[in-house]
Every structure is written in structure tokens, then in C-alpha cells.
Amino acid sequence: MQAKYKIEVAGKSLPVLTNLDKGRYGVIVFENLDKYLNMDKWNRELLDKYCREYSVGIVGFVSPSEETLVGAQLRDFPLFVHTNLRLRDASLNPSSSVLRLTRAGETAWGALPGDDWAVFQHNHSTYEPVEWAQRNTQEYPADSVGQVQLPLTTVLQDRGQLDGIQRVLFGSSLRFWLHRLVFLDALSYLSHGQLSLSLERMILVDIDDIFVGEKGTRLRPDDVRALIATQKIIGGMVPGFRFNLGFSGKYYHHGTREENLGDDFLLQNVQEFNWFSHMWKHQQPHLYDNLTLLMAEMQLNFAFAKEHNIPTNSGYSISPHHSGVYPAHELLYMAWKQVWNVKVTSTEEYPHLRPARLRRGFIHRNIMVLPRQTCGLFTHTMYIDRYPGGRDKLDESIQGGELFQTIVYNPINIFMTHMSNYGSDRLALYTFQSVIKFLQCWTNLKLASAPPIQLAEMYFRLHPEEVDPVWGNPCDDARHKKIWSKTKSCDSLPKFLVIGPQKTGTTALYTFLSMHGSVASNIPSPDTFEEVQFFNGNNYYRGLDWYMDFFPSETLPNTSSPMPTAVGTPRYMFEKSATYFDGEAVPKRAHALLPHAKIVTILISPAKRAYSWYQHQRAHGDVIANNYSFYQVITASDSAPRALKDLRNRCLNPGKYAQHLEHWLAYYPAQQLHIIDGEQLRLNPIDVMNELQRFLKIQPLLDYSNHLRYDVKKGFYCQAVSEKRNKCLGKSKGRQYPQMDERSAKLLQRYYLNHNTALVKLLKKLGSRPIPQWLKDDLSTGT
């Protein structure tokens, strides 16, 4: 279940509860009910008033305490508790209006976890039990002689008849599996359905490694018969259910005589199952750096399928060990498309294996990648007496534990199993048949199954926000490094980003940085020159391999530098893309891949920057800029032609500096951000570059006073290549424009007043950053 939530520490003051006369929270949960009961009068009245006005319910958990309470009244309620009890045999009230997902009628037999349970006693009609349990007579034998055990209320509903606030109170924590179900129902009930999961659950069980396995671990004819029989039983409980078999044809008939008969019997019943392709020799695709060789391996498996009448049109494939799916190996996606026309795959690795509840999906190269779940059975899990923790541990997962909860929380479940789990003790058959029966006993979930393409389409209808991938750093996850090409290295990724914004001096900074022998930038792009522009726009969808090709691990010597380095010397890599500054998705994407990178930005007067961008577009022949005055552009309404609005936005939006910096600071700590005063970069670049070198911790330091010289003709600093010759930026840089008209200047001063004020506050909050003179001037003129 994916629901937005916010954790607050209960203290002297309440968090902000409303936003523009709308309630911010649908349900309020107290991990410790005492924090709610013992609130000071003022806060309690405020919270209760909020709950009544916005129909917000409260969930509370009685927290364990060393003090044992016997019939103690809860403050301000006609309700009494007994604490620190040991209980057994939990059951649910079939008439409770709270229950929705959870099904009443069964009893969870045996001792309940913990010895610190609380039970509720009440004498008012506003209260109704949701869950009962019995006192553990084995723990209290003296109390049980000749007595009829009355059920004790362990979860209680308050209908709100006393004070207009509905509540659900728990006598123990969520460590009891049944409480996790009831908690979901409490959220749904108290939020009036706003925080509800659908009751529909889709289940697909993949069986990887068909025909793969050592002798003695493979399927025999009886195992195949059991597979077909169990599939029929599960199909009676889960409409549309068929096992999904993934095969590697190279290892067909590599078992004992009886296991080879099992292979044959499986193929005689090929129509009973769904099928998908593994790799021919079960090899890992990320080890291939040649598309032709990778496709040739896939074509062998395709030919095997055709020879044995195995369907080839499922549009689904699984990579052995999930190699190449994430981190994405582009050759795998290309080969899959060309050989198998793959439309769907799944992996347990995105964004990471653990925690499993955070696994997500994405779409790359038109292949839908779904999150894959584990079920506690692995390649070598073949015998119950060798199961880690024994049968009790497996049953715990099935009966309310991890496997059961996985299906409860996820609307779409694709489970990974292996051929070896279906031979020997046939643990997979037992596991899935048992968990489905347990789900039917304890939940009202409607189970069904469907082919992978249908599941993928359903998944992304449910989670459209997951369509775009977020490329993480493969070197930050040991598992990801193992399934990532050995020819790739994170060492070549940039150590810092120059993020812009445009027309603030980023090209000059790029040139000055490139003079340093220990610093190197990306290889130029044929489309965007020195800027890769990866983290914004469509380049991001080309994948990490595309980006890394701009940063070769073996860097050529910097022959243009006044401090040249030898071939193979490690370089301090950076990337400059001036459109990153105000790109909405850029900080999140950059941080996912480069969490330790330094961020460098340059700021000048936002009004001056806007005018400079307009003149830049005019000089480059932009039709709109050459047909509209600057004032017409910046005052264009939202009903104006799209091209005019786009130019207006590119002029105005990047100048909202504080807003964009806050966005970056939501992902990067302040100590990784360096702000350059663009006017100082123009007037005093030597000091600016020395300060930047110290921030970046670049060694050795380059003394820019020997390498930068003011050029009178250009009107700015250039690289001094000899005693009499300077190397300056091209004609398009430092261009002289007509002065901005007064009407536009005044409008922009008013427009940016609040943004500039916010920037001053932000710079003061960040500390150790002087307020630029241009900012003081803009504010004094603006007021």
C-alpha cells in the first residue's frame, strides 16, 4: 500500500493541521495512546476540534509499560484497561463495521506474541469490539479452574457517539500479523475510504530455470503430474492461474534417465502452462559487450522453442540473476526487442532488493519492468528439513507472515521460484497452495491471475508515476555492481555539476575550469556541444550507458592546459549543463546517480539574465524574439501563442533563484552547494576560481593570476596563452546589447521583488555567503 504520510514527534505544539482551509491529514495515528490521552488541554481541544470539523479519525496503540494496570480508567473516557497480559486464540467480530479487507469467522489459535497485551472494558454503546482474545490459561492456571473464559476485547472501535470523533484502539502493536490487516481496515474506515486498497489481487508465479539444474535436482514425471494437479487446484481458487515457465534449452536432457523423462513429459504437456524465455545457456547478459553475440545466444533458445512447440509470443522474458535489467545494460534491451519482441520483464533489483516493500517498476526502451517478489524459496530450497528455520519458519511466512503480507500489500504480485522448488519435497506447491488457502480464510481479497503483458498494463495504470526510471549509482549497491558490466566504472562519473542557469557566465566558468590540468569535462555532444543535458529532457531515457559514454575512464591528456597531465592520470570530472538549474526533475535524478557530487551555480541579476536570454535568442535568429519586443515577451498572457509563452517562461522562470535553489537543497546538503556571484566572476575571476578550487578540494591549485588576463577589446577576462596573446570566447560571448527599456526594467524589478527577498533570506540561512551587490541594488531599486 502506497499512502502519503508524515511522522511527527508528539511535543508541546501540534503540527500544522490545515492548509488553505483544507485538512492535511485523513487519519491521525498515535503509536503511544498515552501521548494523546495526556495532551495538555489546549492542544487536545485543538486536535479534537480539527477531527470533528474535518471528520478525521484517530488510531491509537496502547504502548507497553512496566506498570501493570488493573481496571484503570482512560482519561476522559468511560473506558477501562488491563495491561501486561498474556493472551491466546484471537478472533474477530463478524458484525464490526471496521472490517473490510479482513474476514471474520476464523480463530488464530495459540499464544499471541508478547506478554504486554492490554484489553479494554467498556459500558457505553459508542464502543464495539473489533477483535477478541482469551486469557492464556496455561499462563494463569489458578484463574481458570472451573471458570468459563469470557472473550477479552483487544481491538476496540469508538463510534464517536460521546464526542463526535471516531477511533480504533489497539491493545497491542503491529507485531501480531492480524493487527496489520485490521490496521489497514481502520485506516480505510476512519478515512471514509480515502486510504483504501482495492480488494483485487493479481498473482503470477514464475518458475525460472526450466531444464537447468544438477542431476538429482530436476523434475521427474511424477513431479510434472503434481505440478499440473496443483495448478488445477489453485486455478479453482485463483481464476486464470497457470504456472509461468522460463526455459534455457541448452540444458534439455542433462539429468538422470528419469529426469530426462521428466523433461519429455513437461514438453508433452507444453499447452498446460505459460512459457517465457530465459537465456540459452542461462548466462548473464551484462557480460556481453557485443549485440550480435548476445542476439545469437537468444536465437538458439528461440530455435529450441520452435522445435519443441513452446510458444514464443508471450512478450515476457527474465534475465538470469536479473542481470542487465537494472542497472540497465542497453544491449540486453535491444536484443530482447529484436529476437523475442519482449514487452515486459521483471526484477527484484529496482531500486534495490531490500526493503522489498520499496520495489518499484519503470519503463525503458518500451519494455515494461515490473517489481518481482521473492517467496522464501531459493534455488537450493528443496527439502523441508533443510529449510532455514525448519517448517515452522516457512509456515510462519505463509500464515500471516512475509509471504502472506506481500500479497496483501501489493495489488500485483509476480513471484520468483525455481525448477528445483518443484522437485524433491515440492516445497513451492505446498507454499502457494497453503498461502492462497490462508488468504481465503482471513481476507476478502479477490484473487486472480493474468499473462504478464496484461499485468504490466494494469500495474502502470495503477502507478503512472513510476513510468519514468530513476537511474541510481550502481556502485552504491554491492548486488548491482555484480550484475553490471565489468567494462564500466563509476570512477569516470562527474564529481561536480555546473548547473547554470543560462546566461550567467557558465561557458566562461567551463573554459576557466578546463584550463586546470587535473580537471576534465565530458566529451562534447554532437547536438548540444559541451553540454550533455542528460538529467533533463529525453536524453535521460537513453539510459546510464549513454551518459557514461561521455566520460571515458581513460582520459586523454589535456594538451590545452597550462598544467598538462600524462595519459591515464586520474582527472576530476565535471559536467556543465546550464538548463539543469530550473529543471523540475533534475535534482532528484542527479542525486540518485551522483549523491556525493558538488553542485556549482552562478547567479546574476535575474532581470539582467532575462534580458540577456532574449537578446541571445534574437542573435540566433529566433522568430518570436525578432518579432516581439522584450516588453511584449515578458508581459505575454497565458492565452498567447505557445511559442511566445515558451520564450516568456525561459526568460522569467530561471530567475526565481530561491525557489530553484530550495529544490536542489531538498536533495543535496548545503555543504555540497557552491554559489558564485556572476558579477564577481566577470570582474574578478581570479579570486572566484581560487575559492572554487578550495571548495572542490582540487589539487594541485592552479594560480589563475598567471593564466587569466583582462582583454580590453572584449571587455572581459580571457586565457593568457602568451605574453601578448589572449584566447577569448567566441563572438557570441560578451556581445553588447542595447540597454533595456525603462518600462521593462521597472516591471522586472517588481516581478522579482519577492523572489529576490526570498533569496536574501536563503543566503543568510545558508551562512558564510555574502549578499551580492547586484542583489542589494535590485532590491533597493525595486522598493
TrEMBL record:
<dbReference type="GO" id="GO:0030210">
    <property type="term" value="P:heparin proteoglycan biosynthetic process"/>
</dbReference>
<feature type="domain" description="Heparan sulphate-N-deacetylase deacetylase">
    <location>
        <begin position="200"/>
        <end position="404"/>
    </location>
</feature>
<comment type="similarity">
    <text>Belongs to the sulfotransferase 1 family. NDST subfamily.</text>
</comment>
<feature type="domain" description="Sulfotransferase">
    <location>
        <begin position="494"/>
        <end position="753"/>
    </location>
</feature>
<keyword id="KW-0812">Transmembrane</keyword>
<keyword id="KW-0808">Transferase</keyword>
<dbReference type="GO" id="GO:0015016">
    <property type="term" value="F:heparan sulfate N-sulfotransferase activity"/>
</dbReference>
<feature type="disulfide bond">
    <location>
        <begin position="718"/>
        <end position="728"/>
    </location>
</feature>
<feature type="active site" description="For sulfotransferase activity">
    <location>
        <position position="503"/>
    </location>
</feature>
<keyword id="KW-0735">Signal-anchor</keyword>
<feature type="binding site">
    <location>
        <begin position="733"/>
        <end position="737"/>
    </location>
    <ligand>
        <name>3'-phosphoadenylyl sulfate</name>
    </ligand>
</feature>
<dbReference type="GO" id="GO:0015012">
    <property type="term" value="P:heparan sulfate proteoglycan biosynthetic process"/>
</dbReference>
<dbReference type="InterPro" id="IPR021930">
    <property type="entry name" value="Heparan_SO4_deacetylase_dom"/>
</dbReference>
<comment type="pathway">
    <text>Glycan metabolism; heparan sulfate biosynthesis.</text>
</comment>
<dbReference type="InterPro" id="IPR027417">
    <property type="entry name" value="P-loop_NTPase"/>
</dbReference>
<keyword id="KW-1015">Disulfide bond</keyword>
<comment type="pathway">
    <text>Glycan metabolism; heparin biosynthesis.</text>
</comment>
<feature type="binding site">
    <location>
        <position position="717"/>
    </location>
    <ligand>
        <name>3'-phosphoadenylyl sulfate</name>
    </ligand>
</feature>
<keyword id="KW-0325">Glycoprotein</keyword>
<feature type="domain" description="Heparan sulfate-N-deacetylase N-terminal">
    <location>
        <begin position="3"/>
        <end position="190"/>
    </location>
</feature>
<dbReference type="Pfam" id="PF12062">
    <property type="entry name" value="HSNSD-CE"/>
</dbReference>
<keyword id="KW-0333">Golgi apparatus</keyword>
<keyword id="KW-0378">Hydrolase</keyword>
<protein>
    <recommendedName>
        <fullName>[heparan sulfate]-glucosamine N-sulfotransferase</fullName>
        <ecNumber>2.8.2.8</ecNumber>
    </recommendedName>
</protein>
<dbReference type="GO" id="GO:0016787">
    <property type="term" value="F:hydrolase activity"/>
</dbReference>
<dbReference type="Pfam" id="PF00685">
    <property type="entry name" value="Sulfotransfer_1"/>
</dbReference>
<feature type="binding site">
    <location>
        <position position="612"/>
    </location>
    <ligand>
        <name>3'-phosphoadenylyl sulfate</name>
    </ligand>
</feature>
<keyword id="KW-0511">Multifunctional enzyme</keyword>
<dbReference type="GO" id="GO:0000139">
    <property type="term" value="C:Golgi membrane"/>
</dbReference>
<keyword id="KW-0472">Membrane</keyword>
<dbReference type="InterPro" id="IPR000863">
    <property type="entry name" value="Sulfotransferase_dom"/>
</dbReference>
<keyword id="KW-1133">Transmembrane helix</keyword>
<dbReference type="GO" id="GO:0019213">
    <property type="term" value="F:deacetylase activity"/>
</dbReference>
<dbReference type="InterPro" id="IPR056793">
    <property type="entry name" value="HSNSD_N"/>
</dbReference>
<dbReference type="InterPro" id="IPR037359">
    <property type="entry name" value="NST/OST"/>
</dbReference>
<dbReference type="Pfam" id="PF25119">
    <property type="entry name" value="HSNSD_N"/>
</dbReference>
